[in-house]
Amino acid sequence: MKLNKCFKHAFNMVLHSKLRSWLTITGIVIGVAAVIAIVSIGDGMQQTLNAQLNALGGDIVTITAGAERGGGMYGMRGGGGGGGQATTKEIVLGRSDLQALKGIPDIALIDTNIRESVNISYLGKTGKVSVTGVDQKVWSQITTTTIQTGRMLDSADQNVIVIGGNLASSYFSQPVGINKMVTINAAAFRVVGILNDQTTSVYMPIQMAYQVMPDKTNDIYDTLVVKIRNQDQLDFVITEIQNKLMISRHVTQNTMDFSVTSRKEMQQARAATMSSMSTFLLAIAAVSLIVGSIGIANTMFTSVLEKTKEIGIMKAIGARNPDILLIFLFNAGFIGLVGGIIGVILGTMLSGFMPALMGGGLPMARGGTIVTLNSIMMALSVSVIVGILAGIIPAYQASKLRPVDALRYE
After folding, report:
1. What pLDDT was estimated at residue 160?
2. Residue 201 in contact with residue 135, Cβ under 8 Å?
3. Which own/partner pairs from 143-146 qualify as long-range (CB within 8 Å, at least 24 positions apart)?
4. If exposure means fewest CB atoms within 10 Å of the residue's CB, which of 142, 168, 169, 314 is most exposed?
């Protein structure tokens, strides 16, 4: 029997059992639609993640005092970084650490930061914001935040600040514009730049920050932010930084009292979490496909029973076992293909509503969903393969029927 004839027989079998076929197809539709919607969310989040990674700067490394152990910072204040031995000495980053880092040729820039929450006043209104003192000579080259209005800090700046977009636009009753004066802990500062973000942060030269932050000590830093020369050598440079600081601070790997983290690592950790979540959701969607395949198998077994006498007639007039096998496999594959096509259409429509359905509970999903050609091809392939696999046993049983037995079947 020719291939097109087998296909025609299979197509007629679907047409003549409309209700049963469509009920079976529905199971595949639900499974495929779920897969498409979930994969589109995953692809959308991946794109958002990549954009965030690029924006954050994968070549930035942050060094903080205190070792990260057991999921928390250890030894920041009087905890002691020496393998659990108690000490009253405060663990800090200082000028000696800065000098040690300057000896690493793979480091391009080093920014020294101190940070504290301070009072800020503008036109009689007062609030509390986070102020960061930065090395104004390099800050503009390290920060990944862009300027919206005005300029970044310059090496000659003294009593000037750069503020976040939200602080400028809506924190006070009146917007804070360029060249406006604000008071921070009783000292007056002129606004020279507004950042293109939605924060209430304030950045000022570090020497001025020491003056408005009475708890801070000169040449003691909260963090050291490092920009490396070659992003591809990130892991190597981190190891280099750790070795250099361990020597200068006289600590070992076990008693290390500082932490070196990169933004790339943080993003990779988020990517790993996202990947686990996507896998879990895909597993749930796969259950729908398994249920759909069981429906196809059930439909095929019923078809074999219904078509037993017809199979006997076909064999009596010359149809071979492979012909009968192909007819039923085509039938199963056709059910899977139709279910896959409808599932792709439904899944594509559903993916458009997913960010809204999540209600902002998943921040990275705000970037939208992406239905790629690869995911469509994958879904269609899986639906057809699932259909054929589910139809193998019924098709094999049908092909093995003896013509005499089939013709006698009532």
Report:
1. 95
2. no
3. 144/55, 144/56, 144/57, 144/60, 145/195, 145/196, 145/197, 146/195, 146/196
4. 169
Percentage of the chain lying above the pLDDT 70 cut: 87
Give helix 373-399 / helix 18-56 axis angle, nearest 10°: 150
Tokens for 252, please give them.
């070992």
Per the CB < 8 A criterion, the answer to whether 195 and 163 are in contact is yes
Task: Please give the Cα distance from 237 to 220 (Å, whole number).
Answer: 23
Q: What does the pLDDT look like over 315-342, one tens digit per residue?
A: 888 888 888 888 888 888 888 888 889 9
Dihedral pair phi/psi, residue 109, rounded to 5°: -140, 150
Q: Structure tokens of 320?
A: 């071979």
Neighbours of 84 (CB within 10 A): 12
Q: How many CA atoms lie within 13 A of 404 on its CB side?
A: 0
Q: Which two tokens stand for residue 197?
A: 């973000």
Which of 222, 226, 221, 220 lies closest to 263 in space, CA to CA?
226
Q: How far apart are CA 184 and CA 193, in angstroms?
A: 16
Average pLDDT over residues 6-15: 76
- Residues 64 and 115: beta-carbon distance below 8 Å: no
Q: Which two structure tokens, joined as six digits, stand for 380?
A: 């269609």
What's the predicted TM-score (pTM) here? 0.57
What is d(CA 163, CA 370) in angstroms, rounded to the nearest whole number? 35
Helices (H), 307-372: 308-316, 321-358
pLDDT tens, residue by residue, 260-298: 988 766 667 777 777 777 787 778 777 777 877 788 888
